[in-house]
Amino acid sequence: xxxxxxxxxxxxxxxxxxxxxxxxxxxxxxxxxxxxxxxxxxxxxxxxxxxxxxxxxxxxxxxxxxxxxxxxxxxxxxxxxxxxxxxxxxxxxxxxxxxxxxxxxxxxxxxxxxxxxxxxxxxxxxxxxxxxxxxxxxxxxxxxxxxxxxxxxxxxxxxxxxxxxxxxxxxxxxxxxxxxxxxxxxxxxxxxxxxxxxxxxxxxxxxxxxxxxxxxxxxxxxxxxxxxxxxxxxxxxxxxxxxxxxxxxxx
Length: 251
Ligand code: PEP
Prior knowledge:
The protein is α/β, with parallel strands linked by helices and 251 residues long. The chain has a single domain (4-250), classed as Alpha-Beta Barrel (TIM Barrel), CATH 3.20.20. It has eleven helices and eight strands. It has helices at 16-30, 48-54, 81-86, 97-102, 107-120, 132-136, 140-155, 181-196, 200-205, 219-223, 240-250, and strands at residues 4-9, 37-42, 60-64, 91-94, 123-128, 164-167, 207-211, 230-233. It has an eight-stranded parallel β-barrel with strand order 1-2-3-4-5-6-7-8, surrounded by five helices. β2, α2 and β3 form a beta-alpha-beta unit. The longest helix is centred in the middle third of the chain and has 16 residues, at 140-155. It is globular. The site of phosphoenolpyruvate has 15 residues, from β8. Phosphoenolpyruvate (PEP) binds at residues 9, 11, 96, 168, 173-174, 211-214, 232-236. Pathway: Carbohydrate biosynthesis; gluconeogenesis; Carbohydrate degradation; glycolysis. This is triose-phosphate isomerase. InterPro entries: Aldolase_TIM, TIM_sf, TrioseP_Isoase_bac/euk, Triosephosphate_isomerase, Triosephosphate_isomerase_AS. One of its GO terms (molecular function) is triose-phosphate isomerase activity. Its EC number is 5.3.1.1.
């Protein structure tokens, strides 16, 4: 039985004041958890310590939005997996389409980050998804399969026992235009089938999240699909009541 998981990706948003205000809304509502739903928030790096301190003793878990594939050394501006663990992060988002597109992150680099993150004890949340052009030209499934396969090739299928995959169609991120529940379910089933080709048990156990304009209005229908185990939520995770409503939609 897979547990449900909802992850808030705060992206490059927030100040000390706004993050404290957001947590004042979230922490009391989530302090004892929400009906078997695991909840993770991923603030920008400078606020990891503040968030770690504020969520202490509450059921919210800390994540980060990116990590280096290097362990330490002369990599100015980079953050190592060990540093994230030291800041009490347990999850890390990898391969978000904004990083694939704006920072030219390749499947191979993301796979290396995946391995480095796991070696340090982090749980990677591997983001995959096709662009609108790829959906329109019929290559959506192949694109997502290649993104997952890059990690399978480098890390091996058993590495997915300690990982999460988030299917996020690029055309749905931040656009207000979510994939339909059927489109999302179809891709999630395809990802599970691809993994099952390597190991059926791992495929049955891995949490697959949907991301892309998830809101309190569409979350319930998305989350009730057989292969959708929760969501990766961007914009709506910056609003405490919307995020809580989304978390409640899972149960
Ligand atoms: C995201 O940032 O991963 C995301 C899905 O954003 P949004 O919910 O705003 O579309």
